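Write out this protein's structure.
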Amino acid sequence: MTDPVDIVAGVLMVAGALLSLGAAIGLLRFPDLLTRMHAATKPQVLGSLLLLTALGLELRSWELVPLLVVAWIFQLLTVPVSAHMVGRAGYRTKHVDKTALTVDELDDVVARVERAEEEELEA
């Protein structure tokens, strides 16, 4: 007879793999930087959580749980920061379609920085 924990772990593995696959497909298929960035971060973090949870259930070792938690926290902390940096770099290099933005909060900040850089070069 199949152990219920194995079934739950299998379902979590399949769900995590599908979310990761969805992230990869979105990364390839979405048209612009911001939607690709969204596809690369949101489902990937949840997919990694599901896969790490499945791994913890399947191995049935309490000693492994802190390592899995640290791995997921590392993902949770680094993925948004890297997406933020990619988004700002894309914005500054004009790879973001500003017509698709509802609110452009960076426009004033970037204009101010560019003016300061120009003034610094003139001085």
